Amino acid sequence: MLKVGIIGVGSISKHHIKSYMIHESVELVAFCDINEERLKDKGNKFDVDLLYTDYQHLLDNDDIDAVSICTWNNSHVEIAIKALEARKHVLVEKPLSIHLEDAYALKKAAEKSDKVLQVGFVRRHGENVKILKTFIDNHELGDIYYAKSSILRRLGNPGGWFSNVSKSGGGPLIDLGVHVIDLCWYLMGKPRPMSVSGNTYYKLGNRSHIKNLSYYKAADYDPTLNDVEDLTNALIRFENGASLFIDVSFTLQAKQNEVSVKLYGNQGGAEIEPELALISEKYNTILNTTPQIDNLAFDFGKAFSNEINHFVDCCIEGSETIAPVEDGVEIMRILNAVYESARINKEVFL
Ligand SMILES: NC(=O)c1ccc[n+]([C@@H]2O[C@H](COP(=O)([O-])OP(=O)(O)OC[C@H]3O[C@@H](n4cnc5c(N)ncnc54)[C@H](O)[C@@H]3O)[C@@H](O)[C@H]2O)c1
Fold it and tell me: Is 32 in the pocket of ligand 1 (CB under 6 A)?
């Protein structure tokens, strides 16, 4: 049995908790949170007795084999390094860090350790993504030379720490962009990023005055502080000539929310969001193919359980994770360059 603890039991932790609880080789034994009331509530709700307000005390428990780190972005690296030093396997939520130097420090610690360090790139584990990856690996798209993705929320700044740059590292780019930049980069075959041109906008604030529409909020929602951007766009060029364009927002004067992920190759194209679709040509005719699968869209719950199952397999079998620390670092290099490019108003070379 793999004994697991969760550090940070706010909103996203329930997906980790549920997936561990139904895993037959896992015993979920401990929770940690600096918010004692939330910690006790979650302990009662999920029947977990070992409750800690200090993560170091959880890590000092030698019975615990692995941890999920679901805290604010600014504490991921510190806790992950301490967890590896305490000889735990680590699943750390995205983004890896808020500062690039910290991401490198975690990579160094992970390389010294024989424990698993998996980054929470949950979208890599979506069923529709896994199917598309099989098609890509079998060269159905040929060379993917362009990818394009948007996650545009017209009203969706989660407030609290998410909109406090010292705790989050930024707004929609580091929170939402991280997922789709990673997903496109992963499906494009992880080409080496060469340069980045980005823009950030601080025009609308968090639009917390808007009534009659509900949206995702942090466990400690507070709309009074907001120093993150509303919108980011970026063009990322890769060494192999491919490029990726993204735009992501927390608030925007848009007619509706939008999520799209599209990849274009010389043999075929694909969409993952809003639904899996494959585009090709045969006998001088363009074909739009709809795979016959249970769910064409991204199924968050299923992707989470796939992610946790993969992490547990890596811990138990000693196999390689598909989301290693070096990928987390590479994505941080890109995110960092987008913010830097927006700051200096110029293209940044990596
Ligand atoms: N994979 C995904 O799709 C996804 C979705 C949402 C959030 N996330 C990530 O998960 C993490 C948490 O996000 P959330 O939405 O659950 O936030 P949240 O605010 O709801 O929960 C975070 C919890 O961590 C606790 N915490 C903060 N610092 C701590 C520390 N040093 N020790 C112990 N507890 C601490 C807070 O008290 C809070 O209960 C973030 O890194 C976020 O980017 C990932």
Answer: yes
